[in-house]
Amino acid sequence: ARPGAESFDAIDIRRVEGRRTDGVNEVEVAAVIDEVAHLLSDAAVPTVGVLSPFRDQAAALEAALLAAFDAEDLERGGVRVGTVDGFEDTDRDVVVLSLAVDEPSSFLEDPNLFNVMVTRARKRMIVVTSLRPGREGDGLVAAYFRWAEDPHLPRPSDPPSAGWIAALAGRLVDRGLPVVADHPVGGYTVDLVVGEGAAAWGVECAVYEDDPVRHLDRHLDLVRVGWRLTDVFESRWSARPEEAVEGLVATVLGQSDPTRPGGQ
């Protein structure tokens, strides 16, 4: 879920035709067991988390896991199952998330719950959902699905031909950093994506669509689904582009100084 995992599909959306009855979506339970079986069959078994935002679904998942696998297999995979609250201070290499619902839910749109729910995976997130395409609502869940299902691998791209973004992109390329301009994600575009792998950062170079409200919406939506963002606005740095670039390089390489642009 985090940008920086673009070298592989960090988020997999598995859609099933399930319904939540008496608090439990049995079709999703079966799909989760299938995903866990595949993960545990890997010679290099990752640590595995199984997560649902709903207590009844989490209980059903736990019972199904205990019935499907012996204790040795579960221990070998470090398998842990629980609700979002139970995972607040825990993460795993791979997390299998069962949303359980078959209609949009305001409960899933709570920013704090959502942020914990989608950031428990170190390497890969598998989301099992009964929500039909186009029926995910118009909030955080829908934005997350758009980001996951768009072709979101950063690709080498020509920097913009003119302007502040072009100046920054050209200097960053000269410094040997991978740069993608106007990267599409979740219905938005990000001015620049700099770096790759775990070091990737999104760079905001101007107010998005010249609309402060849209700019803030984009920023918050991207942060909630795991993006790391920094900003280098022309109004502040146009007279000192090299200093701005030095700050971005330090940020991307993990050597950021709070006094430089990009310092967090």
What does this protein look like?
The protein is an alpha/beta fold and 264 residues long. It has two domains: 11-149, P-loop containing nucleotide triphosphate hydrolases (Rossmann fold, 3-Layer(aba) Sandwich), CATH 3.40.50.300; 163-252, Endonuclease, Chain A (3-Layer(aba) Sandwich), CATH 3.40.960. The chain has helices spanning 26-40, 55-68, 71-76, 111-117, 140-149, 163-174, 212-224, 234-237, 241-252, and strands at 11-15, 48-52, 80-83, 92-98, 121-129, 179-185, 188-194, 201-204, 229-231. The strands form two sheets. The protein has a five-stranded parallel beta sheet. α1 crosses α2 and α6 packs across α9 (241-252).
Kindly list the characteristics that best describe this protein.
single chain, 264 residues, Rossmann fold, 2 domains, 9 strands, disordered N terminus
Number of helices: 9
CATH fold label of the largest domain? Rossmann fold
Rg over CA atoms: 20 Å
H-E string:
EHEHHEEHEHHEEEHEHH
Brief rundown of the structure:
The protein is 35% helix and 19% strand. By secondary structure, the protein is of the alpha/beta class.
SSE layout:
Layout lengths: L10 E5 L10 H15 L7 E5 L2 H14 L2 H6 L3 E4 L8 E7 L12 H7 L3 E9 L10 H10 L13 H12 L4 E7 L2 E7 L6 E4 L7 H13 L4 E3 L2 H4 L3 H12 L12
Parallel strand pairs: 1-5, 2-3, 2-4, 4-5, 8-9
Antiparallel strand pairs: 6-7, 7-8
Helix pairs in contact: 1-2, 6-9
